[in-house]
UniProtKB/TrEMBL annotation, chain A:
This is Cytochrome C. InterPro entries: Cyt_c-like_dom, Cyt_c-like_dom_sf, Cytochrome_c_Oxidase_Subunit. It comes from Plastoroseomonas hellenica. The lineage of its organism: Bacteria, Pseudomonadati, Pseudomonadota, Alphaproteobacteria, Acetobacterales. SUPFAM superfamilies: Cytochrome c. It holds the Pfam family Cytochrome_CBB3. It comes from the Bacteria. Coiled coil: none annotated. Residues 66-152, 169-259, 271-378 form the Cytochrome c domain. Keywords: Electron transport, Heme, Iron, Metal-binding, Transport.
TrEMBL record, chain B:
InterPro entries: CcO_II (IPR045187), CcO_II-like_C (IPR002429), Copper_CuA (IPR001505), Cupredoxin (IPR008972), CuRO_CcO_Caa3_II (IPR034236), Cyt_c-like_dom (IPR009056), Cyt_c-like_dom_sf (IPR036909). Keywords: Copper, Electron transport, Heme, Iron, Membrane, Metal-binding, Transmembrane, Transmembrane helix, Transport. The keyword Transport applies. Its main location: membrane. The lineage of its organism: Bacteria, Pseudomonadati, Pseudomonadota, Alphaproteobacteria, Acetobacterales. This is C-type cytochrome. Residues 227-320 form the Cytochrome c domain. Belongs to the cytochrome c oxidase subunit 2 family. Signal peptide: none annotated.
Amino acid sequence: MHWRLILGLVGTALAAAALFAWSGVYSVAATSGHYPFFSTFLDFALRQSVATQARGIAAPPLDDPMMIRRGAGHYHGGCAPCHGAPGEARSPVSRGMLPEPPDLGPQIGEWTPAQLFWIVRHGIKYTGMPAWPAPQRADEVWDVVAFLLRLPGMDAAAYRRLALGETEAAVARADEELRLLLLTGPTGNGLAACARCHGRDGGGDGAFPRLQGQSAEYLAAALEAYARSTRPSGVMQPVAAALDPMQIRLLAAHYAGQQPTVPNPPEVAEEDLALGGRIARDGLPDRGVAACATCHGPGPGAPNLLYPRLSGQQAGYIATQLTLFMTGVRGPEAEGPRAGIMARALGVHRERLPARPSLWPLRPDEVRAVALWYAAQPAGAR
Amino acid sequence: MRPAALLALPLAACSGQQSALAPMGPEAAGIAGLSWLLIIGGAAIFLLTMLLLLLAFRGGARLRRRLGSRGAILAGGAVLPTLLLSALLIHTLGLADALGGRSADPLRIEVTGRQFWWEVRYPDHDVVTANEIHIPVGRPVELLLTSTDVLHSLWIPALHGKRDMIPGHLNRLRFTADRPGVMRGQCAEFCGAQHTRMALFAVATTEAGFATWIERQRTAVPAPEDPLLAQGRRAFASAGCGACHALRGTEWSGRNGPDLTRIGARLSLAAGTLPNHRDALRAWIADPQAIKPASAMPGFGAVLAPADLQALAAWLGSLR
């Protein structure tokens, strides 16, 4: 008797719900808002879900100014259009969303770094908050979190310095923008996006990879790989995907044509230099690591135009890319045969990726040493 | 396939370059002799047993009584096997002793198993090559066997039995070739995806031929004058081949892959996978993963223009 009653009630409720949905009486309009208690309930569920899902995520140190600068560079293009930024109001378009993307400044303090990381990486269902375009690139997500933690109380001038870099003045002054457009034709937009982080001369501002001194062939190939999402990066994919082939060619030619500038050489300990230099020149034959310099210079002979040159490159960038190869984020699977050459030169087999950093063919301290050694080489050395 | 042809199939392996029954030296001959002794002896004992069994069923009453007597059972079941197996043991121990080799000054060759090829070094001659062991006829040879990754096993049936190659451990294998010829060997311990394509060749030549070969290996690779070959050398530099491959007398001394000093003169490419031909070499460089998946060599078809690939194959092929 009881069972019949319960089944009958459940069946009636389901039928009523189906009838309600079918009737279309319920409005899905963003303008209609939520019922008062329902929005409280949704907010509760969201916070509980983030808190639970983010459990077990350990935050790395997040006070590196280079991380903050990189995070800001992406925030300006990827997040500010909806969330706004210090001195920049949220777009009226995004404010029409339901839920409305919050102004992040006052909100950041309510979340832990791990929870922010989880939100930026995975996005939030039914809210319009997108997932990170390249979920493998946790390092990029942490850059954004490092920036977000600085966001509360940041003034407009500080934000513009961080997010716009040297293009701050150019964006502020219309004649400068026009000059950029005249200089590079239809790529004005693309270049502005590039220069915000990499600088107009490709110097990279110490936080971003230096583009000057690379071949146009390599830069174009890298942009194409980003555009096709074969080379994963949540920062570069959206930028590169917006470029047409002609713009890619022009941008690559522009940066390839820049004279390598000499940044402040990094302070590198003697033993790091010695270890890094040995690995770069001789490799580690016992672990299957080939000599970096044979392909990436410095050395005699004309290097292949499709191989990046590393002398003077920013150390953090080199170390990150090596790490991505060690962990299989980059490799022949996604990127094709060219990345296969690099994976092989590092002694990484795609069938059996090293399980933990202590098993990498180049151990983390060796990755660091070789990155520092290259960063300390005079830029443009062949 | 007709039944006769089917029966002949297993025998196909018994002739030619890679057969324990076609020995090219005294050690392999000893092993082959022992094999024949066991095969023929075993067959004789089997026939004798079957004959006795037949007699036990069909023989006359007297014969059957004699076969069942205590004396016959003792003689056939205990005394005869003991005598035969003891004789065989003594013969085998003597043979094993002889197989160990005892020459005071053998030609030492270090052979290292790698996934999936063989590195071959002549420490006394300062020569490095790959996938090919050259030996002089009549001179005792000692192979020093090890591995840098997983277990491999060297088996050149025409010269000797199998010997494991173990990471961190040195095994020795001593033999002599008593006539000139080319013998094929094979990795005989499963070592990964391309275990089957891990072969090598042993080439036995006269002392003079061996000395010439050694001298050739020790000669530096000259800079080519021919424009096509020079283009090939530039392609080698541009693609960074030297990061993994060494070429004697050049700036390239990589040790991840085979030494390529005289690759044009080798009998095969990629450890017995391909015939050594310019077109095969070009195909191999362009996309080795299509030919030998999971081999260590990455493809360079995406990095080198077709003309450069062609020139590179021509130049490497000219290193004879």
